[in-house]
From TrEMBL:
GO terms for molecular function: homoserine O-acetyltransferase activity; homoserine O-succinyltransferase activity. This is Homoserine O-succinyltransferase. The gene is metAS. One of its GO terms (cellular component) is cytoplasm. The keyword Manganese does not apply.
Length: 288
């Protein structure tokens, strides 16, 4: 079924060339209305990666990309924002809200320029959407804001493609099996002991070498993804090269390269499981 967008995002043509049913159709409506608050600095990459997954679910979705009202992005042109995005205050009623991650793992939350506004959005998200899906940095930030679970800086960056154990049965992990692999990429994570012990949160999927991947608050229909099902085949490699070029001496992503020399990249096989994960979220918690 198609994904419908009301603004002519550059990703639309790219994904149509891949054979995906995504439409720029300002007058059409989807059966599910999603807002996507994009906090990533490379917004076009984020748009393309997540629209690719949503375009493969078996639900007719209408997606609106959102920007913060009181924050001016420093890495994306204002022309792009004005042309393709809506202010987050414009959409007062949604079926689902997605809040992306951001590469802010080494900063304290109150050092983030838009932290106060983001906290306000965390507070009213439950009132404007049936369910909220928090991604990566936003997932850890929401755990801190809602449940007072702090982050712990890691001695080295968690980076690689890891196998996961399904911790418990749940609608969000339907049709996924233990061993399912997803990329992780982060410098810090919510303190795992507090996350697992919290009485309002269930950890649903976990990698022994990378920590929690998926958690849920059933009462409030909040879902938290700590990894990256949206990553393209070369995303971890590009991050590794970026950090290397900055002189950060990064370790190569684990369980990622297909050869010992680190030259042969995998296919993005994890995306199919990411589509299933989104399908589960939409059917279990978002669809009316």
């Amino acid at each position: 079924m198609p994904v419908i967008v009301h603004r002519p995002l550059p990703a639309v043509e790219i994904l149509q060339e891949e054979g995906l049913d995504i439409r720029f159709a300002p007058k059409e409506r989807g059966s599910i209305r999603l807002g996507f608050l994009n906090l990533m600095p490379e917004k076009e990459v984020c748009e393309r990666q997540w629209l690719r997954l949503f375009a493969q679910v078996d639900v007719n979705i209408e997606i609106h990309f959102l920007f913060l009202n009181r924050w001016t992005p420093k890495t994306t042109s204002l022309d792009h924002i004005r042309q393709y995005y809506s202010p987050v205050s414009d959409l007062l009623q949604l079926d689902g809200l997605v809040i992306s991650g951001a590469p802010l793992g080494t900063k304290e939350y109150d050092e983030v320029g838009y932290w106060q506004e983001l906290e306000e959005i965390f507070d009213y998200a439950d009132d404007i959407a049936e369910s909220t899906l928090y991604l990566c940095w936003a997932a850890n930030a929401a755990l801190y804001h809602h449940y007072n679970i702090p982050r712990k800086q890691k001695a080295r960056k968690i980076s690689g493609v890891f196998g996961h154990r399904i911790v418990r049965p749940h609608p969000l992990v339907q049709n996924l099996t233990s061993g399912v692999q997803f990329p992780h990429s982060r410098h810090a994570e919510a303190r795992q002991q507090q996350l697992f012990a919290h009485n309002e949160i269930q950890v649903l999927m976990h990698a022994p070498n990378a920590g929690a991947f998926l958690a849920a608050d059933d009462l409030r229909r909040r879902a938290f993804i700590f990894g990256h099902p949206e990553y393209e085949a070369d995303t971890l490699y590009k991050e590794f090269r970026r950090d290397f070029d900055k002189g950060l001496s990064p370790q190569a992503p684990e369980y990622y390269f297909l050869d010992e020399e680190g030259k042969e990249l995998p296919t993005a096989f994890w995306q199919a499981s990411g589509v299933q994960l989104l399908q589960n979220w939409l059917q279990a918690w978002v669809a009316k």
